[in-house]
Amino acid sequence: MQHQDKVIIIDFGSQVTQLIARRIREAGVYSEIHPCTSDPAAIKALNPSALVFSGGPSSVHDEGAPPLPKAYLEWGLPILGICYGMQVLAHTLDGEVTRSQDREYGPAEFSTLGDCPLFDGVERKDRLKVWMSHGDHVGRLPSGFVRMGRTEKLENAAMFDAARKIYAVQFHPEVAHTDQGGRIIANFLFKIAGLKPGWTMASFVESSVKRMAEQVGDGKVVLGLSGGIDSTVAAVLLNRAIGKRLYCIFVDNGLLRMHEREEVIGFLQEHFDLNVKCVDARREFLDKLKGVDDPEQKRKIIGYTFIEVFDREAKAIEGVGFLGQGTLYPDVIESVSFKGPSAVIKSHHNVGGLPEHMNLKLVEPLRELFKDEVRKVAAELGMPENIIWRHPFPGPGLAIRVIGEITDERLEILRQADMIVQQELRASDWYRKVWQGFAVLLPLKTVGVMGDDRTYEHVIALRIVDSIDAMTADWSRLPPEILARMSSRIINEVKGVNRVVFDISSKPPSTIEWE
Prior knowledge:
Blueprint: E1 6-11, H1 17-26, E2 30-35, H2 40-45, E3 50-53, H3 71-74, E4 79-82, H4 84-92, E5 96-112, E6 128-140, E7 146-151, E8 158-161, E9 166-169, H5 181-192, H6 201-216, E10 220-224, H7 229-242, E11 246-252, H8 260-272, E12 276-280, H9 282-289, H10 295-315, E13 320-324, H11 329-336, E14 361-363, H12 371-380, H13 385-388, H14 408-427, E15 436-450, E16 453-466, E17 474-475, H15 480-493, E18 497-502
Helix pairs in contact: 6-7, 6-12, 9-10, 14-15
C-alpha cells in the first residue's frame, strides 16, 4: 500500500523497536520496521521519507555486531539514531565508541546543551527524565556533529549534524519511562524531517478496501472467523470490498465461552450482512482431546483438527481462489526481525496456518496494523464498543484454561465461572480498565464446608492483568469488593466449586495464560 510519507525503522534487535513504530504512527505518520540485515537497495525502493536506527543488545566492538550500511548515510534523508543507533552512527563515521565499565539500565536525568529542534517545546530540558539501556557510549563525536545533551554519567548523551539532518540520542524516547518522548519523536518527524501527518484509520479503510477489490477481482475469498477483533475486522473490510463473494467459516470447536457462538454469528449477520457458515465440530474436537492433559499436545490437536475442518469446508465452496487472514503487523515483524523482537519463549496460543495444498492466495487486510490500530479501524467501521474492546481470547480457547484433562463437565464449570468474571468486570466498569480477565479451572480439588456438609470440590483461579500489548503484563489491583463478589458468586452459583484464588504473578516471569 502506498503512503505519502513513510518512515523506515532499521531494527538492530531492540526489544522495544515496535514501540518506535507505534509512536511514529500515533503522530500520524506511517512507519515500517525492517531488519538491519536488509539490502539497502530494497529499503531505498520503498521510497522512505526518513530513517530511524533502533537500539540493540550488541556492542559495536563485538564480533558479528550488526554494521550500519554507509548507503543509508548517502541518500540525504533525515536520520534519528536511538541507543545502539547512536553508537553505530558514531562508529561508522569517524567518531569513537567506548566500552563502559558498567551497563546503565534505568532512569537518568538528561540536560540539553544549547538550542536543538529535537527538543523544541520540551519542558524541563535541563532535568529531563529519560530511560537508558546501554553498555557502550560515544566517547568522541564524529566530524561535523555537535553535542546536544549530557547526563551525570555521559558527556555525550545526544548529538546532531544539522547540515545532514542526522540526530541521535543515547536514551529511548519511545518508552513510557522517558518524559515527553512523544514530543521528541514528533519534533524529528515534523520540525526536522518536514513530514506531514496523513496516516489515519479513515484513510486506511478507504485504501484497504480499494486494494483488496483490485487484488481479488471477480474471485472468491474464504476466511476463518473466530469472533475475535482481528478476524472480525478483516471480514468486515473484505465484505466491503467484495460482498457476498467472501465466505466466512466459523468453527465451533466446543471450547468457546458461554453463548459465544450465538453472539458472534448473530452480530455479524445482523449488522454487516456477512456470509457466515457455522460448523458444529464440537464432538470432533472433544473426542480427539479425550484423556489429553499435556498443554502442547492440546494445542497441536486443536490446530490440526481446525485445519482439517476448515480445509473440508473450504473445498466445498466452488471456485475459491483466496484465503483471508487477520494477520497483524507484529506477526509480520516476527517473521523477519533481527534477534531481539523475534525471540520465541513459548508456543503461540493461536492455531497454526493452513495446509499448502489448498493453494490459495493470501489476502491480509490488517498486515500493516498494530492491535490498537485494529480497534480504531473497528470504530471507523461502526462496530459497538463491546466488540471493539472484547478481551483477547486464545485460539485453543478454553482448552488451555481447563488445566489438565478436558471433559464436558469441566468445560461447563469453567464457562459458568468465566461468565461471572466477565459480568462483574463489566458491571463495575473495570472491563475496559484491564487488558484481560478470565477464570481458570485448576486440576485439583480442596476441602470446604457448605452448610453442615464437608465438600471436596474444584478450585477456580482468577487471572486479571494490566498490559499495553501483552508483551509484558502485571496483575490488576482490583478493589477487594469486586474480587469478593466474583468469589461469592462463583462458589454459590457454579456447582462443583468451593474455592476461588487470585493470581498475583506478572509477565515475565509468568505468562498471561496458564498453559
